[in-house]
Amino acid sequence: MRIAVFQGPLESGDVAQNLERLEHAAAKAAAGGAGLLICPEMFLTGYAIGPQAVAALAEPVDGPAAARAAGIARAAGIALLYGYPERGEDGQVYNAALLLDRDGQRRANHRKTHLFGTLDRNAFAPGEGPPTVAELDGLKIGILICYDVEFPENVRLLALQGVELVAVPTANMAPFAFVCRSLVPARAYENHLFLAYANRCGHEGELEYLGQSCIVAPDGVDLARSGAGEELILADIDPARIEAVRPHNPYLLDRRPELYGGIATPGKPA
Amino acid sequence: MRIAVFQGPLESGDVAQNLERLEHAAAKAAAGGAGLLICPEMFLTGYAIGPQAVAALAEPVDGPAAARAAGIARAAGIALLYGYPERGEDGQVYNAALLLDRDGQRRANHRKTHLFGTLDRNAFAPGEGPPTVAELDGLKIGILICYDVEFPENVRLLALQGVELVAVPTANMAPFAFVCRSLVPARAYENHLFLAYANRCGHEGELEYLGQSCIVAPDGVDLARSGAGEELILADIDPARIEAVRPHNPYLLDRRPELYGGIATPGKPA
Question: Which segments of B104-143 does DSSP mark as H helices, in order?
Answer without folding.
Answer: 117-121
